[in-house]
Amino acid sequence: MRAPLTILSLVCVVTLPLAGQTSVTGVRPLSFGTVFPGVASVVSRTDPANSGQFDLKGHPGGTASLTFLLPAVMTGPAGATLPLVFGGSDGGFSASQSINTQVAFDPRTPYLATFVGNRASVFLGGTANPSPGQRAGSYTGTVTLTVVFF
Amino acid sequence: MYTATKVTIIALALLTAGVVTAQAQNNASINVSAAVQQPIVVLAGPNLTFGPVFPGVPKAIALGSPSAGRFDVTGQASAPVSMTFVVPSNLTFGANNLPIASWVGSWNGLNDPAGSGFTPSAGATAATFSGTGTLFVFVGATVTPSVSQVAGAYVGTVQMTVTY
Amino acid sequence: MPRLLLLPLMLAFGASAPLAAQGVLVAPHAIYIDHARRSGTVTLYNPNRDPAEVTISTAFGYPVTDSLGHFALRTVDQPDSTLPSAAAWVQAFPRRLTIAALQRQTVRLLATPPTGLPDGEYWARLIISARGGKLPVAGVGDTAAVRVQLNLVVNTNIGLAYRKGPVATGVALSQLRARLVGDSVEVWSRVERRGTAAYVGTVRAALVDSTGTVRSRLSAPIGVYFVMEPRYALSARGLARGRYRLRYELVTEREDLDPAVVLQAAAVRDSLEVRLP
Questions:
Q1: Res. C152 pLDDT band, cuts 50 70 90
Q2: CATH number attached to the domain at A39-130+140-150
Q3: Own/partner pairs for C267-270, CB < 8 Å, 24+ apart?
Q4: β-sheet bridge partners, residue A92
Q5: CB neighbours (10 Å) of residue B121?
Q6: Looking at this predicted complex, what is its ipTM?
Q7: Kind of pairing, strands B154-163 and C148-164?
Q8: For labelling alongside A125, which of A115, C136, C207, C267 has CA 20 to 30 A away?
Q9: pLDDT tens digit string along C92-105?
Q10: Is residue B19 left, alpha or beta, with left meaning phi > 0 and alpha meaning psi from -120 to 50?
């Protein structure tokens, strides 16, 4: 009788659902602050105050696919739009959750990340390109990160 | 129900649950934001350049001269502004004075000195930004060295205020 | 023959060549502080290759128009209690700073209003004074005995408004008149502020022909603090002889200001007939 119980225990350990052990949380918005018409504004992914940040919880040694949904514009007063550009190294993955030890990646394409511990962070920079006639006011947009844990 | 059957059912249930969740997907969002502010910029452009000056020979720089001074102002299209100046009447080198006077000015929405004339002074001069938010201010003056003007370093201060 | 004076002299309004500049960028160009937070910011950016020394001060003043309909700033050195001045109790931190080349600096504005300040809007002027480094001289002969230095100070004077409690604004429009001067139609009006806050908006004028087509238009920002009689010029160049309708309105719309700070008020409009000979 004990043998079947032992087998059952092993099965339970192997087949516990992953969903309860993984998560992604938005920690810090990507903030361009004050920008001037006609003057591009760049936020580096290593900017500790203004870069976007997500914290991940996963499995030590596990992998995860990171996919960003990036806005092309921010929207402002009277429907005005402010163009955004994300470059090939504007994404950063840190297995140690340190902004100073990131591996750069292109946030425009899916990125396969590997966990070391069970926590990691993803950082995001970008460029805002206000036109010379950009209307004054506050502009906002949304960045979504989808993580598939394997 | 036999215990063995119960265990089997439980095991099968757990197995099924495990297969369904071999991959877990999560997503989260953050905001991205910016605040656009319309600035006003007052920059000094080309120098008012007198070049070589001879004792006893006044030298004037007209507004249309490539040696005239220029300020470039950028702001809201068609907005009115007021300008005032504090200009020296002498440039000084120790106790030596080099008179400078007959200040002349003009403003234009284009980079063209043939605009609206004025005399740079403490009195306010009204101007208007162009439809593209530009304003160019041109300045000229005349220096009058004496026949015994001492060579040396002559210093002066020009102050321009743009009120928006 | 006059002795050749080896005194090439240049009054420099900037570095010699290549073209450099003095002055800083100031944004926003109008500051609004509410009583709840009692603080605001202004961003300064130095676009020059040299550091800029900046000092910030406050004064009291408000826009008016002169007899020619031009805008001017009326300043009052010692505003009494009848004038809504915030100049004495708004301070900039820092008040003196050096901004490195191509760098920006945020200056905080802190308000410490007197106890019991009544609700309303209070005004000040913020003066940002920028002084560049020593200006090099062009055209100077190669001699150590001849040096010229010109100090340039560029001042930017912008408005500041402090709002306590509920405030409202509006404007009354009267005495609309127009006349042809050269190839322009001069438009005059009298605008008088209503409410407890300055009217900040846009003047729009248009010449409309008998078919209803707009033939000339003008749009300009305006701030009415008390009473003004502004003059505008609408181009009439190339317009055919005949009757036109001048449409004139003031609206609380501004593209150069954050909509969150622009108080809304009903548009005011008037029109009159203009004949072009």
A1: confident
A2: 2.60.120
A3: C268/C170, C268/C171, C268/C172, C268/C173, C269/C173, C270/C173, C270/C176, C270/C189
A4: A104, A123
A5: 14
A6: 0.86
A7: parallel
A8: A115
A9: 999 999 999 989 89
A10: alpha
Which residues span the domain enclosing C220? 169-276
| Contact criterion met (CB below 8 Å) for C49 and C101 | yes
- Is B65 at the interface with chain C, CB within 8 A? no
Residue of A nearest to C42 (CA): A34
For residue B162, give Cα distances in angstroms to A97, B94, B125, B128, B159.
49, 31, 10, 11, 10
A145 min Cα distance to partner chain B (Å): 5
Which residues are within 8 A (CB) of C32 and not within 5 positions of it... i.e. 6 or more apart? Answer: C40, C160, C161, C163, C261
Give the DSSP H/E element, type plus range, for residue C55: strand C52-59
**Angle, alpha carbons B65-B66-B69 (nearest 5°):** 85
Residues C147 and C218 in one domain: no
pLDDT (0 to 100) of residue A20: 61
Burial of A129 (0-12, 13-18, 19+ CB in 10 A): middle
Determine the residue of chain C that is closest to B56 in CA distance: C2
Structure tokens that stand for B50 in this block:
């007198």
**In chain A, what are the domain boundaries?**
39-130+140-150
Q: Which of B27, B32, B36 has the CB atom closest to A136's CB atom? A: B36
C28:A77 CB<8 A: no
Residues C36 and C122 in one domain: yes
Output the pTM of the full model.
Answer: 0.82
